[in-house]
Amino acid sequence: MNKERKLIIAGNWKMNKTVAEALDLAAGLKLELANVKEVDIVVCPPYTALSEVSKAILDSNIRLGAQNMSEHNVGAYTGEIAAVMLKEFSVRYVILGHSERRQYQQESDALIARKALAVHRAALKPIVCIGETLAEREAGQTEQVLSTQVRGSLAELDKEQMVETVVAYEPVWAIGTGKTASPAQAQEAHAFIRRVLAGMFDETVARKVRIQYGGSVKPANARELMSLPDVDGALVGGAALEARSFTDIIKNSI
Ligand code: PGA
């Protein structure tokens, strides 16, 4: 597949996998994906498995991501994890503002914006998630919601940082539901997000930013979604928990 931007496909393992299970999955992926050069591949295990998975994928083409990070560098923040701790395990990417965190931990655009800046200051790359709910889509508010989230969550970044940021468009109604956005819905949302980025930064920045689609991505729909002009990768939940399906998503996207 000849794309303007290199595809980036990330597996978000969420709160799944013990260390032993994570190692099994990592070993399977390392073997199956060894020859893939066309796609940037990222796995985001839970914190407790970062150390072991990091060792398991050493010298492979798979990069490590975390699922969240504190906006603070150090100190009295019980339960939080700082950038410097992630860097000990060669983490490269950090998912921020996933809709589950926006919903269950009340993460705001302003907080996500501060975290995105902290991620860049640590020389890591954020994957910033945005997406509308079903009620918002049905009320015709999709563009307004996406625009507010893009402007709010990326507010602290300069142009250089923005180019090194991945945006993940994940319609909340498509996450874990088996419902995927249609190719037309996905392309329309991605093109809109890119227009908002062009307004906030400039056309050159907007053209360089990779925008992933997330929400029930599977081997069967990956090819069509990844072929859309403004879709530059995927953030995969359920189908990333098994080596076979995550591998097939990647291979079907090439
Ligand atoms: P899903 O999750 O692939 O299970 O829909 C995607 C996500 O939440 O990142």
Estimate the global geometry from the Cα principal axes. Answer: globular
Number of helices: 12
Which residues form runs of ≥5 with pLDDT under 50? none
The total count of strands amounts to 8
Average the pLDDT over all residues and give the rounded result.
97
Q: Can you give the helix content as a percent range?
A: 40-55%
The CA-CA distance between the termini, in Å, is: 5 Å
Amount of beta strand: 15-25%
> How are the strands of the largest sheet arranged?
1-2-3-4-5-6-7-8
Order of helices and strands: EHEHEHEHHEHHHEHHEHEH
Q: Whole-number radius of gyration?
A: 17 Å
What ligands can be seen in this structure?
Answer: 2-phosphoglycolic acid
Characterize the largest beta sheet: strand count, sense, and whether it forms a barrel: 8 strands, parallel, barrel
Q: What structural class do the secondary elements suggest?
A: alpha/beta
Account of the protein in words:
It is a single chain. This protein is an alpha/beta fold and 254 residues long. Helix content is 44%, strand content 17%. The chain has twelve helices and eight strands. The protein has helices at 19-32, 47-56, 83-87, 99-104, 109-121, 134-138, 142-153, 159-163, 183-200, 203-208, 219-226, 243-253, and strands spanning 7-12, 39-44, 62-66, 91-96, 125-130, 166-169, 210-214, 233-236. The protein has an eight-stranded parallel barrel, surrounded by seven helices. It is globular, with a radius of gyration of 17 Å. The model has no long low-confidence stretch (mean pLDDT 97). 2-phosphoglycolic acid is lined by residues 12, 170, 175-176, 214-217, 235-239.
